[in-house]
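Build the 3D complex.
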Amino acid sequence: MNIPKIIQEQKSYFAAQQTKDISKRKQLLKNLLTEITKREKDVITALYADFKKSEYESLMTETSIVISELRRTIKKINTWAKPQSVMPAFLNFPSSSKIYKEPYGAVLVISPWNYPYQLAFAPLIGAIAAGNTVVLKPSELTPNTSRITKEIIEAVFDKNHVSVVEGGVDISTELLAQRWDYIFFTGSVTVGKIVAKAAAQFLTPVTLELGGKNPCIIDESANIKLAAKRIVWGKLINGGQTCIAPDYLLIHAAVKDKFVEYYQKEVTKAYGDNPENSKDYPRIINQRNFDRLVIMLENEDILTGGKTNKEDNYISPTLIDEPSLDSEVMKGEIFGPISPVISYQTAEDINKIISHYEKPLALYVFTKKKRFANKMIANYSFGGGTINDTTVHFANHNLPFGGVGESGVGAYHGKQTFDVFSHKKGVTKRYNWLDIPVRYAPYKGKLKILKTFMKYFS
Ligand code: NAD
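Done.
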């Protein structure tokens, strides 16, 4: 595979204005929608083959999200792409001003394995809608889904417009060594830093959608039964391998026992007495991640779960009792079906724990007290979050989705995805019917007029 050649051809295609026509972009997105709808069953089969992701979860968290993102983009593309008029500056009188949405050019999208379909297509749709060319590097850990993704794209796009380059770290490294006009990366913090470094070499703008250690706070006023149900859902969907899954549970000591009891009940309700036999319970993606998670269980007090099966990368839904902040499970992002339970008494206890970590991608707070919720939202910096539920802020395309600090740079979803891939070019148009002489040299005798102007009109 000749990576420099692929990019060169895409750059020539872009320079020849082949990606700019909005009706053509729209038609290609419609073609993509047709192809994606046609291949939906194949995608679901591939996701199951990759990590036993159920048909239901594949529909809910992968294919339906891509379809709705596509439908919205097709409906709105004309409005989003239109130059936006803004108020002119009085000092430029007479004039008008507009913001033009200009595609960056050659975009590189690198996606992870955990939502391998959705997280490849969501940025790709925005990049195409905004008029860019794209090279997509899907994850090597989900080969079946990556193959279907490649087939779908090859059925719709000229390779000079969109190309899928499959491969692992070596291919990714080679791609990152090239000069891009924009890089959109979703993955771990460690690799995010590698991407940022590579981009800095050419001052290439980036979006980094990373991970973090997401706190989930449950205070004593919360509806504990409902909280347990919603946490079980948000934590265990995709086998806990979700960037915005609640990572550790901070529970008021007075309601801890009650919560643990409901958690166990909700797990049984969702996945039966033995989740290993449930068709709805996914597996850990590979042996390396399975081993990483198993180490977290060692020497800890298990409140519930803790069962593993190496043959099948299975780890049961698990609660760990009061691990220390130095323990394996509290060191970094868990990214699996294990939840540490840490009880607190006061707001200072909460503060001590949350401020021990980098800014997370998400934060959740379960409470009936508005003031408590507001305080948690205001006190801590995090990418985004939900009050009285987990992960569902993701589903609102009007909300920006992205991290802050170590959990990421930039945000997307809905119109914001289009904007991410568009440079905003501000242009002022002057009119010729009046030319106020005050700004031109010689300046002698004009200072007073200038000062008056600045006072009233700047
Ligand atoms: P990862 O960082 O290991 O891999 C992501 C991509 O980068 C893959 O395509 C991979 O091939 C490539 N890659 C891996 N190592 C590389 C290297 N050394 N140099 C260049 N490229 C490299 O992440 P992952 O395991 O696929 O996904 C899990 C991580 O992604 C978690 O940390 C999770 O929180 C995060 N994530 C974030 C979001 C978000 O929207 N913020 C969404 C999903 C996952």
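The CA atoms of residues 130 and 226 lie 41 Å apart.
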